[in-house]
Every structure is written in structure tokens, then in C-alpha cells.
Amino acid sequence: MGYAHDFLALFLRWAHVVAGISWIGSSFYFMWLDASLKRRAGMPDGVKGDNWSVHGGGFYHTQKYMVAPEAMPDDLHWFKWESYATWLTGFALLSVVYWANAELYLVAPGGRVEPGVAIFWSVFGIVAGWVVYDLLCRSPLARAPMVLFGLLFVLITFTAYLYGHVFSGRAAFLQTGAMIATVMTGNVFFVIIPNQRVVVADLKAGRTPDPKYGVIAKLRSTHNNYLTLPVLFLMLSNHYPMTFGSPHAWVIVAIALCLGAIVRHWFNTYETGAKGVAVAWQWPLALALAVAMTAYAGLASAPSVPVASAGRTVADTEAFAIVAERCAPCHAAAPTFAAFNAAPGGVFLDTPERMATNADAIVAQAVTTHTMPLGNITGMTEAERATLAAWAAK
Fold first, then answer.
1. pLDDT in tens, 275-285
2. What domain range includes position 255?
3. Cα distance between residue 128 and residue 179, in whole Å
4. Could you tell me if 250 and 331 lie in one domain?
5. What are phi and psi of 369, to 5 degrees?
């Protein structure tokens, strides 16, 4: 059963990545297409602009209507299942990995909440995130897009801060990403596609479509576009404990939100043909934010590294006794911990030689960021972490 669970997680992760590539690819393409449209003489009434492209040896001519064409075309292609498939596979992956093993992946070390309670807050956070966001977008704030986006930034950052007090660092980042991703798919399912269906129904009935539906959908689509890169960062971060392992990891989330949005803004601006200052400030600022994130992660993690007593030397045998008890139940050729059939990440710590080979990883995961053991399931103490720090420093 263990291998079956692992393969289920693998296939779901694979499907999630494939669906995500499809959704992000189509989203980025249409944002580029919208920005690249040119108004030319002789265009039909109601056409905003057109685009000529070449790809794969063929030429493509695309036109965009301000609202809709006068009559429905025979074939109309919808872009929705990319979003739905991404969310469904992500939800399934969250269930199989984080909820099914909540005591390992979801619960914060020290057992601040029980696994069942953590799962409840995980589900509640995903649902509540969409409800609050949707209410804000339906409020008068929708007429002030920059104010609304600034408020969303504050709310997402504050949510990440709250998650850090309920979930493990890794789960807090993933949960924040899942909440944002749910907002993005909710925009497609509850707003963008229904609004498009209203326009299509009006065309079929011979009525003139109301432009407001396009305006509403455009606001949600723009939010999706600017949130895409931060979501990707949060989802990838679970492989890098220096991001979620710092005491104030919500700061990393705040920087990632800004960094991703600024990079995306450069692409959106550049693709309109803008030059000069309009496309000159984003990359320097993005680089500065990346440096700031790196520096902050290093400084924030430093105080959590136990400082060994002056002159203390820890023998390999003493260090291995800790590793054998706290780490090797999972990181062994034949793990004794029931959740694993093979050593996570292919890291083996079941002999002194293997422990020495992975000394840097032990310090990073168990000493600097406290992300290992997972959920501190084996009960590693601060004194033991200090001992490992002294051993690695000799």
C-alpha cells in the first residue's frame, strides 16, 4: 500500500504540473495577444485590433472584438478546463500528501494543533479565501483596481502570517499558494466563464451584449495574471527550507508577491511595445527584491542556529546516536517509520559514513530551519540540535 500511495502522489503531481503548464501557457499567451493588438485602417466595426503571428511554419491572423462579433461563429473555443484540471489535481494532491499525512506535513512542530484541527483550518482557509476575495471584487473597490490589489497583498501576507502559527512552515507556504490558486480558478469558474456565457447567449438571441461583463471578467483575469508567478514560487518553495524555515517566513511571502508581480508587469508592459522608463525599472527592482529575500532568509535563520559551548568537540559516535534515533527511522535503506517505503529524497543517514556525507544537509534541515524531522515526529530536542551543530562545526 505504501508504494501505491507514493505512485498515486507521483501521478497526481505529474498531472498537476501538466495541467498547470497548460493553464499558465494559455493565460500568458492571451495576455501577450491582448497587449500586442494593433489598430489598423479598414478594420471591421467593433474590432479592437489584430495580430499577425508566425509559428511552426504557419501564419496566424487574430482579431479581438471590443465586446463581441455581430453574430456567433460556428466554432467557438473555450479555455476553461486548463484551470479546472489544475485546481482539481492540486486539490487531490493536497489531500493525498498533506491531509493523509497531516501529522508529518501539515502540523507545525510542537503540535500546536491536532492533525484533524489542522485539516479543518486548511479547508476553511481555502474556502474563506475565495469568499473574502469575491466580496471585495464585488464591492466599490472594484472601481479602484490599484487600491484593491494593494488590499489583496496585505490580506494574503497577513494570512500567511496566521498560517505560520497553525501549520508547519512548508505547509503554511503551500496553503497560501493553494488559497491563491483557488481564487484564480474561482475567477474562471464563477465569473469569467459565466460572463462569457451571458455574452454568447445575448448574441444567439440577437441582443447587443452588455460591455460590463467583459470589464468584470478583465479585472479578474488581470488578478490571475499577476498572481501566477507568486503562486509558482510558493508551490516550489517546499523544496527550499531556507524560504519557509525562517521564524518570520511571511516576510518571504510578501517579497515573493511583489517580486512575481513586478516581473509579470514587465512582460505585460513590454509586450505592448513600450520603451524607455516604462520597461526600465522592473528588472533592477526585481533583482533588489531577490537580493533582499536572500539576505533576509539568511539573517532570519541565523538566530535559530544553536551556538555550541566554546571549545566543545562532539564525536561522530555522539552525533550518530542522535541521528540514528531521530533521523534514521525515515532516512534509511529500510525505513522503520510506516509512512515511508524508501528514504525521502534519497537521503540515507543510517550509518556514520552516510551521516558525514550529508552533514551540510543535516545542519540546514535540522539545525538552521528546524524543518526536519518532519513535524518533529521523532521528538528531536533543542539540545540535540545544538549537539549536531557543534559536531558539524568541528
1. 999 999 999 99
2. 67-302
3. 9
4. no
5. -105, -10
